[in-house]
Design goal:
The chain is of the alpha/beta class. Helix content is 46%, strand content 15%. The protein contains 18 helices and 13 strands. β11 (302-305), α14 (314-321) and β12 form a beta-alpha-beta unit. α2 (40-47) runs antiparallel to α3, α7 (123-132) packs parallel to α9 (171-183) and α14 (314-321) crosses α17 (366-382). 43% of the residues are buried.
Length: 403
């Protein structure tokens, strides 16, 4: 079986490419910008300051990648330049994704048994695959666009001051997403929540396959310090309303926990920074590199991720791999990976009382939290990138009819 993988820029696609390559199934990997881990640019990136190091780090291929790569850097660099000039993000990325799809030849498609494309960058490929008689599998990285739009509308009502990240989906972008879902032979998504949003918006359930992401348990490892310190909750991600930051701040204010801290790790806009109050035990770190995330996680006790809408939430597995129980919501991969009360808790999005109660339970039973962390690590060890690749290959064989 030979597969063409076309992802302009998503990080998990690098792992998928490596696993398809490992199993001898990768015919071609088309992407925007990617660097080999032992290359000059990757080595240079590790020596740069944090913001630049992170930008390069997100484009470094995982170890063990040997396949040839068909890079499309011009379109990617043009898009980055336009975004930095303040152009509309949806328009810029939609045009980049259109150009990226058209850059792949009919010959390259015809030479493979199946094509994998990613959401918002698959509507043209899906149509071309159908014309050439090749199965097209859509890698749906987040939920249905109409469900996401409804969430943004709710955020504007619930947290009117946190409207900076609120999105109004452009019609041409939404139509392209609906087209690629309709034309795809099959859809693969990473969580039951994402699948649910698709089904609720008319996508046939039998067309959707759920394949959870993996985690690098060597990079994110159990390395707990024995040095006395405060009990710590930690959040990693964009500091936005969609990620549940306003709710988390309300919770921390209500708890008023003594001898405990809440760490916020991730980028925040200028507006968001003005909305984050000064609270006892609250500490912001800003944007940090992946190795730094792993180190900071190992210095904490509980990972809190009260997101309102995720395709998966890979940081959940990363925190669990570091030995942290997690508190998250049903709008993430939480229901798929968390064993309630054993390695974490899952609440409904926006449930302030539920979040307060879960965090208070941790404060009241700190010894139990440490034991739950060991269980969280064992859970993370089951979600390897190898298992992710195996399930993809199985799905590809079934969809393409290859035994």
């Amino acid at each position: 079986m030979k597969v063409l993988l076309a992802h302009p820029g998503t990080q998990h696609s690098f792992h998928l490419a490596r696993e398809l390559d490992r199993q001898g199934s990768l015919a071609a990997f088309y992407t925007g910008i990617a660097f080999r881990p032992d290359g000059v640019i990757a080595r240079l990136g590790r020596a740069l300051s944090t913001p630049h190091r992170k930008g390069i780090g997100n484009r470094i291929l995982p170890d063990g990648f040997s396949a040839a790569i068909q890079r499309r850097p011009i379109g990617e660099l043009r898009a980055l330049w336009q975004l930095r000039r303040g152009m509309d993000e949806q328009t810029v990325l939609h045009r980049r994704n259109e150009s990226f799809q058209r850059s792949i030849s009919d010959e390259a498609i015809a030479e493979t048994n199946a094509v994998i494309g990613v959401d918002t960058a698959g509507w043209i490929l899906a149509d071309r695959c159908r014309n050439l008689g090749r199965p097209f599998l859509l890698d749906q990285s987040i939920g249905h666009p109409d469900a996401k739009q409804a969430m943004h509308n709710e955020m504007r009502s619930a947290f009117p001051e946190w409207t900076e990240d609120s999105e109004q989906r452009r019609l041409e972008v939404r139509d392209a997403e609906i087209k690629e879902q309709t034309d795809a032979t099959a859809i693969v998504t990473a969580s039951s929540f994402a699948k649910q949003t698709l089904v609720e918006n008319g996508v046939p359930a039998e067309k959707i396959h759920v394949i959870p992401y993996g985690v690098d348990t060597a990079r994110f490892s159990l390395n707990r310090s024995t040095v006395p310190r405060p009990f710590r909750f930690v959040f990693v991600g964009l500091l936005t309303a969609r990620k549940g930051i306003p709710l988390l701040l309300q919770t921390w204010s209500r708890l008023a926990a003594s001898g405990a801290e809440l760490w916020l790790i991730g980028p925040a806009s200028d507006t968001a920074r003005t909305l984050i109050p000064r609270l006892n035990g609250l500490r912001q770190f800003g944007s940090v590199s992946q190795p730094e995330v792993s180190r900071l996680l190992s210095e904490c006790d509980i990972f809190v991720f009260p997101s309102f809408f995720e395709g998966f939430g890979l940081v959940l597995l990363e925190a669990m791999a570091c030995g942290l129980p997690v508190i998250t919501t049903t709008a993430t991969a939480g229901p798929d990976i968390v064993k309630e009360g054993e390695d974490g808790w899952v609440i409904h999005p926006g449930d302030l009382d539920g979040l307060v109660n879960a965090m208070q339970r941790c404060l009241d039973h700190r010894d139990r939290v440490s034991k739950m962390g060991l269980s969280a690590r064992k859970t993370a060890e089951r979600f390897t990138w190898g298992a992710y690749g195996d399930r993809w290959v199985e799905t590809l064989r079934n969809v393409a009819g290859i035994k």
